[in-house]
Amino acid sequence: MKDVGIDAVEFRSGKLKLDLPGTFAEVKDEDPAKYTKGLGLHASSFPDAYEDIVTMAANASKRLMDRKGLEPDDIGRIDVATESAFDHSKPVSTYVAGCLEQVYDGDFRHANKGERKFACIAGTQSVDDAVNWIAADKNRGRAAIVISTDTALYERGDSGEATQGAGAVAMLIDEDPDLVTIEPEQGIGSVDETDFLKPNQQFPSVDGKRSMQVYLMRMREALEDYETQVETHPDDFAFIPFHTPFPGMVRKAAPLGYRHVARGTEVEDELAEEIGRQPRPEAFDDDEAYREALKEYTDKLTETERYQEWYSRAIEPTLDISSRVGNWYTSSVHLARLSALKHARENGIDLDHERLLVGSYGSGAQAEIHGETVQPGWEDEIAQLNVDDQLVERYDLSWEEYEQIHDVHNHEESVDVDPLTAPEKEFVFDGWGRMGERKYTYVE
Ligand code: HMG
User: Is the pTM of this model over 0.85?
Assistant: First the structure.
């Protein structure tokens, strides 16, 4: 079987930032610690007036193609995952290809283009599709570009407002990749749910508290399904990148995952002296008593040195980028992977041939768990990214500017404001065309 996976990655943040413990908490008259400690968020990225899901996707893809020395003929597939699309028919990938064709010789005429939708998990589904396309030998030697791109806005005043974010991740999917190979086994947990949805509306209808429960249930089912195919152990994985709507969500999911993969291993035996064995359902007369015992065990587990060491090693490093940019929906789990690899490079951690356990999630609702193996080219690849530069250079919004920018990107409003940053060497939104299409140009 061929080794297929992510050969290269690029990151594009919206160029504006909202400071959550500073600007947001002050206006909401809340304790800044609710954001930094509770949700685990410091800032959200927002697009400037000339940015949107297409510009962020095209700018990430251009940097990817330039860096890898690619021409349009090298690409046989462009897939975009988004839940912020502005057209029910014409996919964002056609706009992205149109942008790129403005700056490269050649075109994407013979590249298969599409758009995937399943809330945040669509990014991972698009990677799966591209991997399968190559594994099935349909690619004629060409690679695929998979882009996740979102402007994750909530209605003003919605409980999700603090978790907003905007940006894109472009991934080159190829044979014998430099970054990670994607292992074929995958666990799925999928149930028809109405925790978060956008029925023909831009901003989500969301039941925030319930969405967190649904996230945990589907992740558990996906893990159980994965474990029918692959034996797991907490120490098998260098990092465990999860879908991260906000880091506090992952903090809740992590002990449940650990408990699950430690069950029946020597880790459970060793912990037994300190906190007892994990409760088993057959030992309880009713479900409520079992749940209560599980909660008690999990609370004790998170206090153990063994768990805390594992969390600091395998989970905490996946949360850094997310805590600085907010929820990028379809990109979120890909930011978590990137965050971990960036941390490993900065801390001299050798990851060659180490494994990642990747937990993707999309409301509505579905989780997917799969394994990845880090490839020897990972460090050179990660060294070429400019994540910190982009984040440091973001324009810091005042509250009044945030309100205006939210309106600029609200499809129901027609607000015209001057951009807060100056575009340079990038694709920009340039108004509407005759058929109501959005138009883009490249600014030198
Ligand atoms: P909220 O009411 O703003 O916040 O809603 P809260 O009052 O629940 O506080 C949040 C946490 O901060 C709590 O921690 C507080 O205790 C803590 P917890 O008790 O849960 O561990 N806190 C503090 N900590 C320290 N010092 C303080 C302090 N004050 C409070 N002073 C909620 C939070 C998540 C509901 C809201 O942000 C929301 O609705 N978000 C949108 C939905 C969401 O993100 N759901 C996550 C799972 S669903 C998912 O991931 C899918 C999604 O990405 C969409 C897709 O798939 O497309 C959203």
Answer: yes
